[in-house]
Model the fold of this input.
Amino acid sequence: MSNSLVEKKNNVWEMTLKRLNGTMSLLNLKPGMKKYLCEPRKIIEVAVTVKMDNGDINIFKGYRVQHNTNRGPAKGGIRYHQDVYLDEIKALAMLMTWKCAVAGIPFGGSKGGVKVNPSELSKRELENLTRRYTFEIIQNIGPEKDIPAPDVGTNAQVMAWIMDTYSIDKGYGVPGVVTGKPIALGGSLGREEATGRGCVYSILSALKVSNIDTTNLKVVIQGFGNVGSNAAKILYDLGFKIIAVSDVRGGIYNKKGIDPYRVLKHVEKTGSVINYRESENIAGSKIFELDCDILIPAALENQITKGNASKIKAKIIAEAANAPTTPDADEILKDNDIFIIPDILCNAGGVTVSYFEWVQGRDAYFWSKRKVNLQLRDVMDKAFYEVYDIHKKNKVDMRTAASILGVGRVAEAVKLRGIYP
Done:
């Protein structure tokens, strides 16, 4: 592994802690509370043993980190990716804690992952991996304990396998052990596009407070997976012009606009956005240099850095991904007067509708898609304006304001519950 890759990986956890320490200082928290909030409550590392289709045995490294449960059960996705590592999972679990608090939903934060490239596994091998990983962490998850959900490299089918494995162990069906399930197994309508839709609701609020005319606004999206593609479709339907999108293989650009529905059909056929006939191919790194009004990073962490932040021309950055912007880049973006909708606010739509799914499952009463979307908008609007009010009142940037809100709510819960014994 190269030194640069190691530094990049270590930076995610360090970046998260650095931002947390700054927020805790603004909140004047006591030293003991600071120590408590910095440490994950539980870290689980497992060897995931899988029998491959050719009969060989392979072992993959798996993790589950529960950062905080003072406001409710832990909640967080499971990631299947070849670059998964413990510090990343710790950082994402912590961000989930603040995200749930900012959204005002009664969950704490967790995250899980397996170091594997899922595209290299057959469906049977993927199922074997999922069921074995579930077996290894089964004592630490549950509808009142820790509730997994889809993330990078996982989907509704993976959640179905987790639910089934957990239910077999318990001896009865437990649909509430995961969210993001197939509709046929108790999933919620609107869950698949929830993160992208929540991102759009945040953008609409940001445009309103910024007094920006929404006519013919140009949008660039980095990452065209579930979140990026759904945000693109919703914005396109609202009349925004999607001029560029990208994925791991590169990007496409058309200054006259791109139809994301057609791009998705192209992706289904070819596996990538590149070579879409109604656009020109561009390098993935160029996606940040395009002249646009709204930039949506919807891929992995650490994408906007000191090296490319000065090239960004957008008026608004909507962080649909987790931790896409480094602290050094934040300073540059602030100096350039770019309005940032931070990740723990902007992409909270996914965990919000996961909460709705959890509630619906407990009540055995399921909502219409219209109700889900309306309730999501209520939550996202409320969270945005609570963060925006702190931003204006305390004269801090939006990221700091969101952290003040989220960390403050968790610290209050810790104080009220106390430390046992």
User: Anything to note?
Assistant: The first strand starts at residue 42 and ends at 51. The chain has 13 helices and twelve strands. The domain at 194-346 is CATH 3.40.50.720 (Rossmann fold).
